[in-house]
Structure formats: C-alpha cells, structure tokens
Amino acid sequence: MPEYRINIMEPQPQPQRPAEVSTQEVVYGAVTERFVALLIDYGVVFLPFNLITHLWLKFFRPELDLAQALALMGGINGLFILYEAIFSCGGRMTLGKALVGLAVVKKDISGPLSFMQALRRAVGYYVSGALLFGGFLMAFFDDRHRALHDIFGGSVVVQIRQKSVGERLVLRAAGGLLLVAFLWMIYAQFFNKGALLDEYYIRHGRTQLQKIALLEEAHYVKFGYYTNNLERLFLMSGDPVQFQRDTLGILEPRGVKIGVSKDSYAISAVAKDRNHTRISFAPQR
To answer: Where are the alpha helices (DSSP H) in the chain?
Structure first.
C-alpha cells in the first residue's frame, strides 16, 4: 500500500475561499455626508412640487380644506418614497448619493438591494422621523453608521469613491450645518408658535370670518339690519349644515361673537390652534 508523507517544512496549499469584499476596504458613509445627500434627494422631489403648488394656490386660489391639504402632502411624500425605493435598488443611486459619492448596499455588502428592501428602507425614513428623529440619531452610535431605516431595509451606506480631505471637510461641515438648521425648522414648525397646523387654523379662521361677514351683508340687504344670531346667518348660506361644519371645524364653538349696531358690526372668534388665538373682522367703512 503506497505511503504518503508530508514535509512540514514546505508550505501547504490552502483551500480556496470564494472571493468576497474585505470589510477592511469598506468605508461607511459619514452621518453628515448622508444627511447632505438626503436633503438633495428631498429637494429633488419636494421643491418642484412645492413651487407648482405655490403657483397654483397663488393664481387659482382654490379653497383647500384640511383633508385635501393632508392628501396633497401625502401624495408628495408617497412620490418621495417611490423615488427613494427605485433609485436605491438594483445598483442605482439617488441624485444626492451620487453627488456625495455614496451607495446603499446589502448589510453584508454582498450586492445591491432588492426593490422591496429599498421600499422598506424608504418607508423607514418616516418611522425614523416619527420617533422624534431618534431613528436617524442611531447612526451616530452604530459602528457602521446604520440608522433605523437601514435596519428596516437590511442595508448599509458605503463610500464609492475616494474624497480629498478638503471635500470631506466641506461635506461634513455642510451636513452639520444643514442638520442643525433642519432640526431648528422642525422645532419651529411643530413645537413653536410657527407650527404649520396652527397657521392653517389661524389663516382659515380669518377666511371663515370674512365669509360670515358676507352673510351679514346679505342679511342687511334682505332684512335691513345686522344680526348677532349666528344660526340665522348659517341659514342664509344656502347650505347651513355644511357652513356650520366648516365654521366649527376651524373655530371654537363658543368663541364666535358678533357685535352689531345700527349701521355696523364686528366679528370675533377663537381659532382651534394650540394657543387659542383670538381673531376678528370688522368692515372698513
């Protein structure tokens, strides 16, 4: 029987391992650079639609109720999710990530995301934001800078090109400043006096007072005097149930007061914003 001997002094051939990306070669995307890319992508979708919406409201002046305004914002956010999902899968990149030099890949860096992974990741942006942006802040404490939406999508963000020291400093400084500005804007819009919903109630509350004033004028023309009876004015609208619903949806029910004299009137009300802002209307004589 033949005998096989191994010379331990000679190097032995090692078993071949499948080629894979060395994690030592991977550079994960910095949080501030990722934020710059996200703002660029956010602007790609939101700025054109905000401009179109602004022009439409300015020139056509449609009356949007709260449900319609929320539906419009929901549609734009849905488009943003679709944009992020399509351009974060199949080896594609969003405009922001392409400009900053980042790409989204699977968490094991084995390849690009599938569409469903990218879709879950895009929806995860809103979950990260809903948790008082805690989902985004997770990236600061993760060794691979993974945020909550990366966990949803089973993804990680990596650099795809080398950056000079100057470019990295500029991107990170810009990202830091934009992050601070963004957080301040969120605070101002949702937790301070400039909240969007509060502005909606105040603005539409003033519009509703003007409509009540038109009914006062119509009542004067028909009966020869002004009235402080709000229900009587509702009846003159032609659709009292809907007019009452519109009024009480924006103004506090017991906050609407009408003061009348022989030849004038004044209307005051309390809007349904968090500060219960008092608004008023008086005709210019």
So the answer is: 31-60, 66-86, 95-100, 115-130, 134-137, 148-153, 165-190, 196-223, 230-235, 240-250
Last residue of a domain, one of 157, 190, 223: 190
Strands 257-260 and 155-159: unpaired
CB 36 within 8 A of CB 173: no
Same domain, 149 and 173: yes
pLDDT, tens digit, 9 for 90 and up, residues 218-230? 999 999 999 999 9
Query: For strand 265-270 and strand 278-281, is the pairing parallel, antiparallel, or unpaired?
Result: antiparallel
R_g over Cα of the chain: 30
Question: d(Cα 158, Cα 109) in Å, to the nearest integer?
Answer: 9
- On whether both 61 and 139 belong to a single domain, the answer is yes
Return the H-helix or E-strand segment holding 105: strand 102-106
Indicate if 233 and 165 belong to the same structural domain: no
Spell out the residues 6+ positions from residue 107 whose beta carbon is closer than 8 angstroms to its own: 146, 150, 154, 155, 156
Contact 255, 270 (CB under 8 A): yes
Residues whose CB falls within 8 Å of the CB of residue 15, separated by 6 or more in sequence, listed in order: none
- What residues are paired with 265 via a beta bridge? 260
Region class of 9: left (phi > 0), else alpha (psi between -120 and 50), else beta: alpha
| CA gap 155, 123 in Å, rounded | 13
Q: How far apart are the first and last CA of the chain?
A: 122
Quick: pLDDT tens for 110-129.
999 999 999 999 999 999 98
Considering only CA atoms, which of 13, 82, 17, 73 is closest in space to residue 46?
A: 73
Cα angle: 172, vertex 40, 121; to 5 degrees: 95
Model-level pTM? 0.60
